[in-house]
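User: Show me an example of a complex going from sequences to structure tokens.

Assistant: Sure. Here are the input components:
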Amino acid sequence: MKILLVEDDQLMLKTIILRLKKEGHDITSCTDGKEAIEQIENQIFDLIITDIMLPYVSGLEIVGIVKETTSTPIIVLSSMGQEKTIEEAFELGADDYITKPFNLTELSFRIKRFAKAYELQLAI
Amino acid sequence: MKAKTLIHQNDLPFIDLSLLFDLCEDDMESILEMVDIFIDSLDQIIQQLNLSCETKNAEQVYMYAHKAKSSLSIVQIKPLWQIMDTLEEEARAKIWKQHWTSSIQKLSTIWQQIPEMLQQWKQTHIQTQPVQK
């Protein structure tokens, strides 16, 4: 899958990239929301994974912008104590969320769910 | 020699790299690269927190404490995590609190010794080795 990953913490970003690349995904990464919006405007992604707290443009704003014009699935990365924000993300159209610190296997399972739906869509 | 995921200080576990090993699936090359990223990243965050302290910017304290927790959830250093967690929680209201100055000073003091500890650990595990947890 072609995945856009938006995360401002370098260590978290690199560990996720490492894992997802091993699983064969094509990853584009950004460390701030502004850059993410530019990527979204210029490319089509099969899945977006975004942190909520980001410099310049928040993860919530990204969800709002993407869902206004596309049905690209979005997984939101949240932290403990951000329950209200998660609710807001779902209201804006987020498809799933995962709370940090998380197990990368859990993230992989969630991605596989979207990959299956994506393959079905391609088959139709 | 087997790689150890715990770094001790005064005979007590201080830096826990076990989650990093799991995330990198014990690939030593990746682990060593991630340790460098962690050092750079945390170093910048601590510098930014010190600047936020000078300008009494509560919003920045919240942002950087939150960001630090993300890295510290992978490279686990309990004393740093605890201070960052308290700072994040208190700074959520975005109102400056005077006692943060001493918290941030304490963070800086603890941090000073960590890059060297991690570099020493790296030197002893510079080649890919099986893991001992």
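The lines above are the inputs; the final block is the predicted structure for all two components together. The CA atoms of residues 50 and 105 of chain B lie 8 Å apart.
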